[in-house]
UniProtKB/TrEMBL annotation:
UniProt keywords, alphabetically: Exonuclease, Hydrolase, Nuclease
Gene that this polypeptide is encoded by: cas2e
GO molecular function per UniProt: 3'-5' exonuclease activity; DNA binding; DNA-directed DNA polymerase activity
Protein name as annotated: Type I-E CRISPR-associated endoribonuclease Cas2
One biological process term in Gene Ontology: DNA replication proofreading
Length: 299
């Protein structure tokens, strides 16, 4: 039996019994369950007959290209059929303005607006302690195994009263795999000329971030590598509060084909290529933080 969802902004008492007989109320006004076609149609007819005000929507499995169909009642959206596909038309209500009224704000309203702006400026200058402080970390490595492989680049964007960047190349023993050279455009000569010992790079990184909260994309990978490297060098593991941006993206954007950073950035209208370099990737991830629902609020 097809899965069915019925939502109502207001549930009449005359309907509640019918709805709860066939469906489960999982939230206020949201009813879900598996119904055959006959029961679904009868139940929806009951909704249409008894809903005097408020909006109602039904969504259910349907054999078309998108796999579902929906109907609405009393909403500001109209369902249109386009060659078998349901499309949503948002109705626009054009209201005539009374030409006898002068548009704009009264002097009193303008004065109040100016006072609010001044108050806001004062409040911003006072509440510097409320400025969000966090760091975005990205690592480049020569492999996927945190025990046997190496960090070759560390990149951090630290945000607070001002933005600061941190980038270090790290010398390694042996040669870089060809696929890593192609992906990152980091080569052996670059690491030899610009790289520093791992322990020194880690100590400078720890000094740079302090106790700041750290974010990263697919961050479990970076944290495993980082803590493994710290342990190898006899340094304490990271004890900062950490957040994985990808986990918030998965909750905010459920239907992406994949959650590669390139795909996610485009889905949030960040049209920049991912260079697979630590600092540059961290800068892109910092831009993403501002776009993801609920992530910015917790910082």
């Amino acid at each position: 039996m097809p899965f069915t969802v019925i939502t109502l902004s207001k549930v009449p008492s005359s309907l509640r019994g019918d709805l709860t007989k066939w469906l489960q109320e999982v939230a206020s006004g949201v009813y879900v369950g598996n119904l055959n076609t006959k029961v679904r149609e009868k139940l929806w007819d009951r909704v249409k007959d008894n809903l005097k005000d408020g909006e109602a929507t039904i969504s259910y499995y349907y054999r078309n290209e998108i796999g579902y169909k929906f109907e609405t009642i009393n909403g500001d959206r109209e369902v249109l059929d386009s060659e078998g596909l349901p499309l949503v038309l948002i109705k626009k209500e054009i209201k005539e303005k009374d030409k006898s009224l002068k548009e704009g704000f009264s002097k009193a309203a303008q004065f109040k607006k100016i006072k609010n702006i001044e108050h806001s400026k004062v409040k911003k200058s006072i509440n510097k302690k409320d400025i969000k402080k966090y760091a975005v970390l990205d690592l480049e490595t020569d492999g996927l195994n945190p025990v046997h492989d190496n960090i070759i680049e560390i990149g951090v964007v630290k945000v607070g009263e001002k933005q600061e960047n941190f980038q270090r190349f790290i010398k390694i023993e042996g040669k870089l795999p060809e696929e890593i050279k192609k992906l990152t455009r980091i080569d052996d000569e670059m690491l030899e000329e610009k790289g520093i010992p791992l322990k020194r790079a880690l100590e400078e990184f720890i000094d740079f971030i302090g106790d700041t909260r750290i974010l990263g994309y697919n961050f479990a990978f970076d944290i495993k590598f980082l803590n493994s490297s710290l342990e190898k060098e006899g340094l304490a593991k990271i004890n900062n509060k950490v957040y994985d941006i990808m986990q918030f993206v998965k909750k905010d954007n459920l239907f992406l084909n994949n959650y590669k950073l390139e795909t996610v950035l485009k889905s949030y209208s960040i049209d920049e290529e991912v260079p697979h370099r630590a600092l540059e990737d961290a800068i892109l991830e910092e831009k993403l933080i501002h776009k993801v629902n609920k992530l910015w609020d917790i910082l």
